[in-house]
Write a structure and sequence with these properties.
The protein has 114 residues and is α+β, with helices and mostly antiparallel strands. The chain has one domain (7-113): Orthogonal Bundle (Ribbon-helix-helix fold). The protein has helices spanning 24-37, 41-50, 57-77, 90-97, 106-113, and strands at residues 7-13, 16-22. The termini are far apart. The model has no long low-confidence stretch (mean pLDDT 78).
């Protein structure tokens, strides 16, 4: 039997303390996002919850990590990144409007195709 690579950690979410199981690489990515955005893990998880992802909390966090770095890659391709490596204005849009507001998101692609 193969053991799971998932790491269980306690986090403080909107409704109090809970646990999440993620791959080590995702925990590292979350730590990097927190450092870039100057927020705590608890604050980041609360933001992700407020964005209203239809899945559970852990799924929403995985989607957030993917969206964050996809957006950073999109802006890096254009040579349009801030000194800390994050998209200059999209990080604020993400906090305000959620990950679907970012260029490259399904919602953004669908609205530009219309």
């Amino acid at each position: 039997m193969v053991s799971s690579r998932l790491i269980n950690r306690n986090v403080t979410a909107s409704r109090g303390r809970t646990s999440m199981r993620l791959e080590p690489e995702l925990w590292e990515a979350l730590e990097e996002i927190c450092q870039r955005e100057s927020v705590t893990l608890a604050d980041l998880v609360k933001r992700v919850e407020r964005a209203g992802h239809p899945g559970g909390r852990t799924s929403a966090v995985r989607v957030h990590v993917l969206s964050y770095f996809r957006s950073a890659a999109h802006f890096a391709e254009r040579g349009d990144t801030a000194a800390n490596g994050r998209p200059p204005d999209e990080a604020e849009a993400h906090r305000r409007d959620g990950p679907d507001a970012w260029p490259g998101s399904r919602a953004a692609r669908e609205s530009s195709a219309a």
